[in-house]
């Protein structure tokens, strides 16, 4: 595994604060962004490493593992599990290999610690006769931000996790906060063990005029007073195109109508949709002429005689 010194990439010392990391990341990300360095493969690679360094060092738990295990920090959980298993089987105590050495990472050469992992997982050293255990790779977690209009249809999305570009299919109807698993896209397994998995949590931003509640959509439609009183037609936009509505005479303010099947697609149920609820908001006329006011006075007088 190629060792990447995340502190060096961001130009920081190991005692850097969270604010130091944030400032360094923003400065370097702007400087080396691929959009500002077109056709520069080295800039793309460096930008990915900057993102990876920030992802690890800005996460207290990941940073702790990185500081302790160095190049092998992604295998920290497997190491701890293997050490527990060896203790339980009587093969070792504090040092599972029965020797007097203790390996730690101090941020410099990672050779000793890599040797430790090699002997731990049977690649070299005095454990030639020992059965090599297989361990599943570490799971990765990532977040992905999309717009509500994008979530309406199944589409492809490309993003970067730990320096690796991944292209996935996002099913229509995905919900805010929903998590999906991409099997085998985590850290590589050890000694032939399976790869870890990738878990993606979605954050959905509303870029539409609708309010989403589950699979249903809600929309407020302004209606002028004359159409509300006399009736007529109103054309509205749905996420599936335009729809013409028939307005009944004497429609009251805040009247709600349901458009069946015009809501949001149901996740992984092709052709199944929620409903769209339209609420009419009757608007009072403004800037009336004297003639219009007189007509309203006549209407008011007629109403009093009923």
TrEMBL record:
It holds the Pfam family DnaJ. SUPFAM superfamilies: Chaperone J-domain, HSP40/DnaJ peptide-binding domain. SMART domains: DnaJ (SM00271). Residues 5-70 form the J domain. One of its GO terms (cellular component) is cytoplasm. GO terms for molecular function: unfolded protein binding. Keywords: Chaperone. GO terms for biological process: protein refolding. InterPro entries: DnaJ_C, DnaJ_domain, DnaJ_domain_CS, HSP40/DnaJ_pept-bd, J_dom_sf. This is Molecular chaperone DnaJ. It comes from Niabella soli DSM 19437.
